[in-house]
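REQUEST FORM: STRUCTURE PREDICTION
Request ID: SP-0412
Submitted by: Lab K.M.
Chain count: 1
Length (residues): 331
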Amino acid sequence: MPRTIAAAGLVLATQEPGNVTGHTTRLLRMSRPERAHVLDLPRRRSVAAAALVSLRPRQWTKNLLPFAGIIFAAKLGDLSRWTEALAAFAAYCAASSASYLVNDVRDAPHDRVHPVKRTRPIARGEVAPRLAEALAAVLIFSAFVLVSPLGIASIVFLATFFALQAAYTLALKHLVLLDVMTIGGLFVVRAAAGAAAVEVRISPWLLLCTALLALFLALAKRRGELVLVGAEATPGRPVLEGYSLALVDQLVTVVAASTVISYCLYTFTARDSKAMMITIPFVVFGVFRYLLLMHRRDLGEEPEEVLLRDAPILLCIAGWAVSAAVILAVT
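STATUS: Completed
RESULT:
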């Protein structure tokens, strides 16, 4: 694999084919650097592959919230509502991907010096800013086309999502506390939009749980970023200057406890049956497991990686989903 050396002086690394080992490199130095950090960079992707990565499909799991309305309203056998939820899911995948493209264009200079974000296609120059902006425009149009048959409420929710996302990208992500609270608000919009799309009532307690869980993940992400800044692995985003590890740890503790309490209150009051209380241990374990990973392994800077790769959390989510679906269907 080609290797690049970033240092005070300009250093070029070229791999010579035909070498006996196949891994020997010839270094051409214009000045000898005092300190050099060897970085492994992935091979350049095609424009199509890079554009797909720029959409961040791993983040689409956030848009599964439109299906929550069907599950919690116990309408699992209604095919038309599944079709409506699928349309809402696709629309918010397009909407969120459009937002990521615009955000990556604006943040490209900052991303290039970040240990993780420097591999993003726009930051690496694999996707031109104009192409990214054009693709974002197409996705925004497609999102509105998808929700138009779902009614005026769905259109209003999508417009609200775009407005809040634009406010976050342009200003709110630079404001301490408002940055993470905006992220929570975006998740609430997704959940409410899903309920409106399938025409079911969603419990206010469930919306509160959604907001608190999103706030919990956002604060854990800020903590992960602070850890990287402390290790001098990245200069960090400007808003981090208003946070500290001690403050974020306190906020995470408060929000984690509030998330569990609000979910417990939902199971007590949202339905006539109290059987949903059986699912409380899954929520408690999931929150505790994430806290463990955050403190013991300094994970959390990329929440989607934790949620998609940690086996205990995946099993916990699966257990919660199955037990909740069975209880809601039976009761």
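NOTES: The two ends are 57 Å apart (CA to CA).
Reviewed by: T.R.
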